[in-house]
Structures are given as C-alpha cells and as structure tokens.
Amino acid sequence: MPLHPEYETLLKQIAEVGGPDLSNMPVEQGREMYRMMQPENPALVVGSVHDQKIPGPAGDIPIRIYTPEGEGLLPIVLMFHGGGWVIGDLITADAQSREVCRGTEAIVISVDYRLAPEHKFPAAADDCFAALKWAYANAQDFGGDPNRLAVAGDSAGGNLSAVVAQMAKEAGPDLRFQLLVYPATDGSRFDTESYVANAEGYTLTLDLMRWFWDHYANPTQRLDPRASPLLANDLS
Question: Which candidate, 80, 76, 74, 85, places its Cα nearest to that of 31?
C-alpha cells in the first residue's frame, strides 16, 4: 500500500536531517525526547481534566480523567498509551486522550502504567487491568457508567488493550468495545511479512521493535498471551 504523499515528504525530511536513535540513548533521555515530540495539547478543550492516583498491584498508579460536557452517566474508555512499554506517559497521551474524549463523548481515563526496563512484564498489563477494575468499581463517583466500559490504545497500548480485554473476559468486568490502533500483538517472531517489508525507512524500524521487546519481556515470556495476545487459545 503506497504512503500518503505528505507522509512520504515527512520521511524524506527526517532522513535528510537525521536525528538521535532511540535505541542508542539512555532510556530516560529517550523518554524526554518522546515527551517533546508528543506534548500536551490543552487547545483540544474538554469539559474537565483531573489527575489522581489509584491503588495498583505494586503501589499507586497515576491516572488522568478527561470528562466531556454532558449530563447523566457517561461511557468510560480506558486509554493505554503507546511507546513500546518503555517510553510514554500521561503527557504524551494527552492529545490523543482529548481527541477520544471529544470524539466519543465518553470519559477517558489515561493510565500511567509502569514502564520497562525498570518494571518488566507483566507489570504494565497488571497495572492496566487494575485500572479497569478500579474504573468499574468507582465509575459512579466520577460520572461514569460501569456497564459501558471500553479499552483503547496504540502500539504497545493496543497490545495492553487486547491483553486487558482477554483478562476481563476471564475475570470481568464486561467490556463493550476495544479500540486497537496498530497493536503489537505477537513478540514471539520477527519474520512476518510486515516486519520484513517495513524493516527500514519508516521511523519505527525492525531493530527498534526488537529493542522495545527486549526491554519488556524475555523470549519465553513473549509466548505468554499476556505479552502476545495473538497467541491466546481463544480470540473470540
């Protein structure tokens, strides 16, 4: 599939200018660079934005709640940010969370789950599932409808959304919807058609994907559906 001309132009500009390679810099430096690339965007106005912390399996989990204008109990979307389980936070997820809040007229809860390599698999998945259970139990405290829950995320966040959906299928609560934006669903192999065809030249390279996975989960752990949800026995 050909790229949009505007994106082709952007890739050419990136190649001409060059820039730091995330996989060759300290993790914290990479996180700061990503924050600069994905800043908060308060110009995308929503009804209210509220930061707080909720109980997690290994300490408090920071969350940010975006509430649209509206009355009555509103649907709830748990938003899990991308960044290869290594980078990303509430700041980098701000603009996307605001867009989803505005577009769906739902309450969006952005989850600042623990990152690798400090906290390897399954820390991120455990935090995200804990956030879902908290949202279900406390929904009416922030104007949410516990019977209209959804999960959403891009890249690693799409992975975590799929994982949480599978965990919820087994243990509850019931989900109405999952939004998986280019999710990374299988870390057990890097020889698929997509990996081979897009290994270089598209910003997110094969080497960088390996780097993310290596920080998050070892090869044996990647066979666990909580790391690679595509490997689950039942995908219904």
Answer: 85
